[in-house]
From TrEMBL:
Pfam families: PfkB. The keyword Kinase applies. It comes from Niallia taxi. InterPro entries: PfkB_Carbo_kinase, PfkB_dom, Ribokinase-like. This is Fructoselysine 6-kinase.
Length: 253
């Protein structure tokens, strides 16, 4: 078994890229939670504002087909199905000390998005591939950088989805399209990024590593522009595919 999950992966990848990153979420009380916490401590990622609730950690069973990850089943987030992350005043002050906040559809933070938006920290949101027009309209106005998995859409459908996100107030909207790479829209132009072709060991975390490296480079070196940031994202995503799990640290299950 390997530690992972979209927001957690983001914190790990950002730390790997030289940033000071933290993770704010809910831990269960099983052996899986203990392993994840131990790994984050080893990686020196701050988890001081995390909560602990009695119950089972979220997990997904993943198969590998020629190095490509295939999700088989999951427990739908474990305890996260029943316990929303309650953000206290100290949590909000803590969040405001960072340059960027990243969350996702599977963080179950929908109700808190307006509150997070009001904190004034730029927000990145991963919609995965499980989104509806209604969901995009609900969450989109509270997001600065949106990422959507669009392999199931045609190119014209993907472009229209990105246009919708910009119309909702996003600064940038990105569609990841598997082997076809990534497509970005900034309200004026579309940018295409081809993937770095490699013999993948495990593609788990490829999308997360792409968006993390893209945002880290964009925010650090804004003067280099969008294309340079996209290239950095593709490069880092390729390297993450050479590691088992999202970022390694496997344990016998």
């Amino acid at each position: 078994m390997y530690p992972g999950g979209n927001a957690l992966n983001f914190s790990v990848y950002a730390q790997m890229l030289g940033e000071s990153a933290a993770y704010l979420g809910i831990f269960g009380t099983d052996d899986e939670a203990f392993h994840i916490k131990a790994v984050l401590q080893e990686l020196e990622i701050d988890t001081s504002r995390c909560k602990e609730i009695e119950g089972e950690s979220g997990y997904a069973l993943v198969g590998l087909e020629n190095g490509d990850r295939v999700f088989l089943e999951s427990n739908e987030g474990g305890i996260r199905q029943y316990h929303k992350l309650q953000l206290e005043e100290e949590d909000m002050k803590y969040i405001q000390s960072f340059d960027l906040l990243h969350t996702s559809k599977y963080s179950y933070m929908e109700e808190a998005m307006p509150k997070l938006r009001a904190a004034g920290v730029p927000i990145s949101f991963d919609f995965s591939d499980d989104f509806t027009e209604e969901y995009l309209s609900e969450i989109g106005p509270n997001v600065d950088f949106s990422f959507l998995s669009c392999s199931h859409l045609s190119l014209s459908e993907a472009k229209n989805t990105l246009k919708k996100m910009i119309s909702l107030g996003n600064k940038l909207a990105v569609a990841t399209m598997g082997a076809d790479g990534a497509l970005l829209y900034d309200g004026n132009s579309f940018y295409k990024q081809k993937p770095r072709l490699i013999e993948a060991v495990d593609t788990l975390g490829a999308g997360d590593s792409f968006l993390t490296a893209f945002l880290v480079h964009l925010l650090q070196y804004e003067q280099e522009g969008i294309e340079a940031a996209l290239a950095k994202g593709a490069e880092f995503a390729a390297s993450s595919c050479l590691v088992e799990g999202a970022f390694g640290y496997g344990k016998a299950y």
